Amino acid sequence: MKFLVSLLALGLLAIVQAQIKSIDVKGTLACGNKGADNVRVHLLRNNTEDAADILEQRTTTTSGMFHIEANNDGLPANKTELIPTLRFYHNCDEDPKKAKGFRVFSLNIPANYITIGRKARKTYDMGALNLQMIMPNEKRAKTIPEPKN
């Protein structure tokens, strides 16, 4: 009997952990007093350098706006946990004559914006952010990784 209860508990735990979870984020990026257009925005499963963790990508509009949403449906069972992170690749305030690559930084999304289901029920509005500011842990990248999914 204990074996059956343990087996049932493990089965329920596996079902709960394998639930489809989703995230939805929007915001506006500026470079000085104008919209930061053509900024690449990645929504990552967690904050890693692995391109397989890119759930979705978008490019900002000419006014700097973006809206990005994704879920963990279709990911391998060992990659369904979401610790959502936004990563931005931009050239704000960069001299085009000096090819240094892209400025890159990441922001974690609060966990309470993760919802169960394929479509997010809440949207995290990160507001407006001026990319002239040098972000903590900002790095450089020569290229922008493409999603592997």
From TrEMBL:
InterPro entries according to UniProt: Transthyretin-like, Transthyretin-like_sf
Presence of keyword RNA-binding: no
Membrane spanning residue stretches: none
GO CC annotations on file: cell surface; extracellular region
Signal peptide start-end: 1-18
Pfam families on file: TTR-52 (PF01060)
Keywords: Secreted, Signal
Subcellular location, record wording: Secreted
UniProt entry tagged with the keyword Secreted: yes
Protein family membership: Belongs to the nematode transthyretin-like family.
UniProt-recorded name of the protein: Transthyretin-like family protein
Organism: Steinernema hermaphroditum
